[in-house]
Amino acid sequence: MDNLLRVLVVDDMALYRKLLSDLINEIPGVEVVGTAPDGKIALDKISRDRPDAVTLDIEMPVLDGLETLRVLKTWKSPPKTIVVSAHTSEGAVKTMEALDSGAYEFITKPDGGDMGRNRERLQKKLRSIFAGLAVKSKAGATRVPVGSVVGGRSIGPAAPVGPTAATAGLAAEIAGKTAEIAGQTAEIVAIAVSTGGPKALNEVIPRLPQDLPVPVVVVLHIPMEFTAALVNSLDRKSAVTVKIGEEGMALDAGTVYFAPGGRQMKIEASRSGKPALIRVTDDPPENYCQPSADYLMRSVAVNYGERSLGIIMTGMGDDGVQGLRLMKGEGATIIAQDEESSVVFGMPLEAVKAGIVDLLAPLRSISHLIVERVKG
Q1: Distance between CA atoms of residues 230 and 242, nearest Å
Q2: Fold classified for 149-374
């Protein structure tokens, strides 16, 4: 079939080439067109067969994944690359390097334990990524366009903002749009994001100014080994401070706090005139997630109400929607990432369907919208 998404599987282990090929071939609209045991052979096959996407192991002989990515980055139209990483601190650091080098997303290899459960988790992650890519590759794919009306609600447009487009006119247009949805100026920003999150956050957080007058709290669904690697990477390249939230930590302006992997994080009001505090708990998962965006955003709704800004970005499932509903009920403004710029439009779409989204925005606009919304 001509409209199938064509995938090349690259891994030095025959076991993983077989496992990934079998799981990918089970996804509707997707087919594996070949495999390769190292980056050198992979580059030859990519040049010859022109696959739409590649799964790329990082640790390989001859030419490893990072070196292969650096070569692909110089090509005019490289395939979408999904990095396959080990569940280790070293693997996490290399994965962040791979995302900086142009990788589209990453998945992790099974790390022992129940093989049936590991296979199921890998299948779910692969399906979310490749099913989304398959839909985007088809002409006339159904989308929720910016400016459309969903569930009786008008979803407002957001002007694109980037290094070459952030003119005064566009900035004024965005400021005008935020004025339309404005309640009280936000004093905290809460972000929920999952599949595609590390790359998306790399487009948002490094663009925030050092003098951002509010704190930002983030729940990202990635393996706990990867949280520290991502936070360290973002902190190095950002004007704002980026750190992992810790028990009893005070919320400071110009700082981004990530929920620690494998634990829950919430906000607790402090004494009058003092900053709010972070609470880190071992409360059980919600929506199969630990950390959970719903868990965090409930506390934001209670402690900040209309003085908060909620953002839901690329990811599968609906974690965060119920918490954002509570924030919206208190008068908060809610922004969702649009379909075109999302790796997986699951979480933002669920928020749109729930009727709580004020603004559907492309990824490149989100940092500017944050700045406009929190200016005092």
Answers
A1: 10
A2: Rossmann fold (3.40.50)
Residues 335/193, Cβ–Cβ less than 8 Å: no
- Give the residue from 203, 222, 226, 238 showing the smallest Cα distance to 311: 203
Pairing state between β 149-150 and 153-154: antiparallel
Q: How many residues does the chain have?
A: 376
CA distance 96 to 230: 6
Q: Among this protein's residues, is 319 annotated catalytic?
A: yes
Distance CA 192, CA 139 (A): 30
Token pair listed for 216: 């930002």
Q: Dump pLDDT digits (tens) for 95-117.
A: 999 999 999 999 998 876 777 88
- Per-domain boundaries in the chain: 5-137, 149-374
**Cα 239 to Cα 236: distance, rounded to the nearest angstrom:** 8
Q: Are 334 and 366 in contact (CB under 8 A)?
A: no
Q: Does domain 5-137 have CATH number 3.40.50.2300?
A: yes
pLDDT tens digits, residue range 147-173? 443 433 444 444 333 333 333 343 444
Q: Of residues 319, 342, 358, 368, which has the active-site annotation? A: 319
pTM value surpassing 0.85:
yes
Residue 85 identity (one-letter amino acid): S
CA distance 308 to 216: 10
Contact between residue 142 and residue 126 where contact means Cβ atoms under 8 Å apart: no
Please confirm, yes or no, whether 358 is among the known catalytic residues. no
**Residue whose tokens read 């049936």:** 116
- Token pair belonging to 36: 């390769």
User: Which residue in 194, 292, 308, 365 is the catalytic one?
Assistant: 194
Are domains 5-137 and 149-374 of this chain identical in fold?
Answer: yes
Nearest-angstrom CA–CA distance, 114 and 118? 6
Q: Which of 221, 233, 341, 342 is catalytic?
A: 221
194 is catalytic: yes
Q: How far apart are the two ends of the chain, measured CA to CA in Å? A: 55
Q: Are 315 and 293 in contact, with CB atoms under 8 Å apart?
A: no
